[in-house]
Amino acid sequence: MALEPVTSPARIFTFVLTVGLSLLLLIPIGAAAQIVLTSQIEDESKTEVIVVMDPTGAWNNQRAAKSGRLMRASELYTSGVAPVIMVTGPNRAFEKSRAELEELGVPANDVIYQPTGTDTLGTLAVVATLLKDLGWSSATIVTDPAHSARAQVTAGKYGIDSHMSPSSGEGTSLTAEYVAREAIALVRYYLYNQWELPRIVVDK
């Protein structure tokens, strides 16, 4: 039996509304799927620097989150992924982070600090600017698994050749609440933030 053509204004409106709502539902579902898939990436390709994202805005125990990220960064350094670790975040936390990395076997001379804000966009903009100044382009980014997708797309928009290697431990589980929070932030990035970000690091 042939379908009745959509001709009346009421039916057209209902059809458009249904399609629109369906698409709107698919956006957060797609974002959540991207978050889960990216969280599984363990990329240990060689890069020029390991960047430890500051967990000030993390939705968990921030001290435990920082320790987990520093631990993962030290493992990557020891395995030869990159010769330098860059710690981001407020100045007050740097000395403690460097001391923690030294206890994990990372020489103090191979730890650099870059003061940044507490949000992903601002932090990675500063990191990209420093990479450009140093003539670098690649970075291994260490953050929580749920945050990896947003960090990766943001870094890529700035021109960073980013490789993700998420941390593990307390507070890093992919809980429904954490994924939902990151999905909202990722949707906001795609709909709004990405159009304002400049390409800072240029291809070599």
Fold and architecture overview:
This protein has helices spanning 9-39, 62-78, 94-103, 120-134, 148-157, 176-191; strands at 50-52, 85-89, 111-115, 138-142, 161-164. With 204 residues, it is α/β, with parallel strands linked by helices. It has one domain (39-196): Rossmann fold. Strands 3-2-1-4-5 form a five-stranded parallel sheet, sandwiched between helices. The mean pLDDT is 85.
The CATH architecture would be 3-Layer(aba) Sandwich
Radius of gyration: 20 Å
Helix percentage: 40-55%
- Total strands: the figure is 5
What pattern of helices and strands is seen along the backbone? HEHEHEHEHEH
Rounded mean pLDDT score: 85
Query: What strand line-up does the widest sheet have?
Result: 3-2-1-4-5
Shape field = globular
Which parts are unreliable, with pLDDT below 50 for 5 consecutive residues or more? none
CATH class: Alpha Beta
The largest sheet is: 5 strands, parallel
Q: In terms of structural class, how would the helical and strand content be classed? A: alpha/beta
Summed up, the domain count is 1
CATH superfamily: HUPs
The count of helical stretches stands at: 6
Distance from N terminus to C terminus (CA atoms, Å) equals 60 Å
- Under CATH, the topology can be stated as Rossmann fold
Sheet-strand content, in percent, reads 5-15%
Quick description:
With 204 residues, the protein is α/β, with parallel strands linked by helices. Helices cover 49% and strands 11% of the residues. α4 packs across α5.
